[in-house]
Amino acid sequence: METVLNVLHVVAAVFIVGPMAILPMTGMRAVRAGQGGQVATLAKSTNIFTLLSLVVVFFGFGVMGMADKKFHLSFTTPWILISIILYVIALVLSLALVVPGLRAAAERLQGSGNADGGTAGVAGGTGAAAVKGAAGGTATAVKAPEYGRIAAGSGLVSLLLLAVVVLMVWKP
User: How far is CA 97 from the centre of its chain?
Assistant: First the structure.
């Protein structure tokens, strides 16, 4: 049973935590391109994957509980405690900073009134730049004010999750 929980823990980490870390970066590309509809979808997906990441923690606790007693694993084992703290910080950053930033950027981009999901410039936006379209034309993309918040938050989340992976593998 311990092996099954280990497999579930690792598979869930790959297929749930991976997208939790990567989707906001895709969202930043969509913000730069002015694609409000896609940013909204990525905000929703990031929120779902962030909440689903609690499954990874659940399986991790199961693995810890079933571990051989000779390893003396508990919540107070330093690498486990540090991993939990780093994960909680990443979870809070994602839910309180990244997802709201993506939602705000989506609203700003969609608020332009464009039928194409906000690919034209947005009034009041910053950092407008011309972008070559697929047909060779140019559309104006806007780097929403929320872009920095999304970039910083998702970068920190990714670094924290990377530190958790290192601790889980290294087990210092």
Answer: 10
Q: Show contacts of 113-118: CB within 8 Å, 24+ apart.
A: 114/36, 117/35, 117/36, 117/37, 117/38, 118/34, 118/35, 118/36, 118/37
Convert the pLDDT of each residue in 10-47 to its tens digit. Answer: 999 999 999 999 999 999 999 999 999 999 999 999 99
Query: How many residues make up the chain in this entry?
Result: 172
| Contact (CB, 8 A) for 129 and 141 | yes
Amino acid of residue 14: V
Per-domain residue ranges of the chain:
2-118+146-170
Burial of 61 (0-12, 13-18, 19+ CB in 10 A): middle
For residue 44 the two structure tokens come to: 């929703």
Smallest CA-to-CA distance from 108 within 146, 139, 152, 140 is with 146
Classify 116 in phi/psi space as left (phi over 0), alpha (psi -120 to 50) or beta: alpha
**Of the candidates 90, 83, 86, the residue with the CA atom closest to the CA atom of residue 156:** 90
**pLDDT score for 112:** 63
